[in-house]
Amino acid sequence: MNKRPHKPRKPSGNNAPERPEKPGFAARKVAADILGNVVHKKRPLDGELDAASGHSGFRQLAANDRALVRAIVGAALRRRGEIAEILDRLLDRQIPEKTGRVLDILHVAIAQMLFLDIPDRAAVSIAVDHAAADRRARPYKGLVNGVLRRLGRERDDVTADLDADVLNTPDWLMESWRAAYGSETARAIAAAHRSEAALDLTVKSDPEGWAERLEGTVVGAGSVRLSKKGAVDALEGFEDGAWWVQDAAAALPARLLGDLHGKKAADLCAAPGGKTAQLAAAGAKVTAVDISRARLKRLEENMTRLGLSVETMAADLRAFEPDAPFDAILLDAPCSATGTIRRHPDVAWIKKAYDIEKLSEIQRELLDRVVNWVKPGGLIIYCTCSLEPEEGESQVAAFLERQAGKVELVKVNPQEIGGLDQCVTGEGYLRCLPCHLAGSDPDLRGMDGFFAARFRRL
Ligand SMILES: C[S@@+](CC[C@H](N)C(=O)[O-])C[C@H]1O[C@@H](n2cnc3c(N)ncnc32)[C@H](O)[C@@H]1O
Asked: What is the C-alpha to C-alpha distance for residues 345 and 350, in angstroms, rounded to an integer?
C-alpha cells in the first residue's frame, strides 16, 4: 500500500468563524484525544479514564458523556484493525502523520458509524466540525466529510470480506497464539476480544443466592456473572462487603491452595487484592506484598470494605526477605496482561514482543526467589494473566528444570476448579482462554486468559 500522500486543501485561515459546539462534540473530541494518547503515546486506557487523575477533558464531562467516550474508545480499539482497513479502502492516498488528529477523528467517527448505535449523521457532522476546529486537521475537513459520507453510502461494499479476527489482532500476537494454541483457537481468542467482558463477582459465600439476588448466573467455579453494566458500588452487597469484582478465571488460582484455615500465606504482587481477599476469606493469615504503595492503599481499602484482616507490606520482591517461611505462597507475577484484552483493549496496541521478554526475566527472578520462602511441604502457586507461553508454560518448565530437587509440580485437577476441564492442560497446568466458557450470549461468555501452575517445596 504505497500510496502517495494526500494533498491538503489550503487552510481557510486561523480566524475561521466560531460556531457553537454541537451537543456531543466535547465527548468526541476527548475520545479522539484519548485514542491518540493510547495508540501513539502508549498511555494505558485505564489511566486516561481515571475519574481522579485521568485525561483532563474527560474528567470535566458529565456522566453520560463519559460513558459515551468509554464506548467510543473501546470500540475504536477493539475494531482498530478493521477500521484501518476500511480507511485504506476509502482513501486513495495516505494521510501524512503530521496532520495531527485526522486519523484519530476518522477512527472515532467510523467506530460510531459501524460499531455503536449512533446515527451516521451525528457522527459525520461532529467529525467534520472537529477537523475544522483543529488547526492541523483543518485542511482535511473536506476529506473527512467525503470519506465518511462515502462510508455511509457504500457501507456494505466497503465493509465486505473483512477478516475481523486477523485485522484486529497485531501480527506478533496472532503468531504467538497460533504457535501456542493452533490456528482455530487463535481465531477464537481474537473473536472473543470483540466483545466486552461481563462483570464477575467473587462472593464470600452462597453464589446461588447472590446470583438470584443480583439477577446473574453462577459461572466457572462459583463466580457470579452479571450482564448489566452500571455502578458497581450501587449493587446490593457492596456496602456490606459480601463480594468483590474478580474475573471468573482470576478467581481460580487461589483455589489451588486448598484448605488454608490457620495457615500463614503470602500473597506476592497482591494489589489491588482480589486474590488476597480469597486467601483471607478461606481462613489464611495473609501477608500481602506489593511494590506499589498506591495500589496497596487500594488493597487496604478493599479489605476494610470486605471486613477482612490482612498484613500488608510495600516492598520490591527482588529485594524482599521474609522473617520466616510461609505455609503457602501465591505469586501473581507482573505480566503483559494479554489475557485481559477483552477488559483492556488497549493492551493489544500498547504491548510489544519486547515487553514479553523483559517481563519474563522478572518472572524468572521472582520465581527463583520465592521458592525459598515456603516451608518444606508447602505449596507455591505461580500465575499470570497472560496468553503468552513465555510467561506461563515455558516459564514454568524452565523453573522446574532449574529447581529440580527443590520443588515438584502438583498437577491441577479439574474438580478443584468447578469441573472446568477445558482449563486444565495435559501437563497439569491451569490455562484459561478468553474463548472458554463459551455460550450463545456475547455479553455472558468468555473469561480472562490466565495461567497458573502449582508446586510443592520438597
Ligand atoms: C497482576 S497485578 C496483581 C493483581 C493482584 N494479585 C490481584 O489479584 O488483585 C501485579 C502486581 O505486581 C506488582 N509488582 C510488580 N513488580 C513488583 C515487584 N518487583 N515487587 C512487588 N510487586 C510488584 C504491581 O504493583 C501489581 O500490583
From this structure: 9
